[in-house]
Design goal:
With about 120 residues, this protein is mainly beta. Helix content is about 15%, strand content about 50%. Strand 2 (about 15-20) and strand 3 form a beta hairpin.
Length: about 120
């Protein structure tokens, strides 16, 4: 898959992505990623410094923080789900769906350190 520079915008109705204003990229969910629930494309970013993009993946619309996901054989925990909207012609339209993830080990370590900080 070729990588182009620009802002990734995902349309929830047509499951299509556009990079900037010049190119249009169609993203569809694979059969094995689809089952009875509706799956939508999300941009996935691992947020450990430095942030690293894991590409566009399909997940259920009701994915939430703390949920465990497996990407390319590695287990991650969802740290944040971001839905961005942009004002166009007087209406707010979805412009981006993003999931911020941490490796499961790092997520557990962060929770342990936060508990230590609260107890001190």
């Amino acid at each position: 898959m070729a990588v182009a520079s620009g802002v990734l915008a995902i349309s929830p109705r047509s499951h299509s992505c556009s990079l900037g204003r010049r190119t249009r990229l169609e993203v569809t969910c694979k059969k094995k990623e689809r089952d009875r629930e509706h799956h939508y494309p999300f941009k996935v970013v691992e947020i450990t410094p430095p942030p690293r993009s894991l590409g566009v993946r399909c997940f259920p619309a009701n994915i939430h923080c703390g949920e465990s996901v497996t990407i390319e054989g590695q287990t991650y925990t969802v740290s944040a789900v971001v839905h961005r909207y942009q004002l166009r012609k007087g209406k707010y339209e979805p412009s981006e769906k993003r999931i911020d993830v941490l490796s499961t080990g790092r997520y557990i370590l962060n929770m342990y350190l936060e508990n230590l900080l609260e107890q001190s």
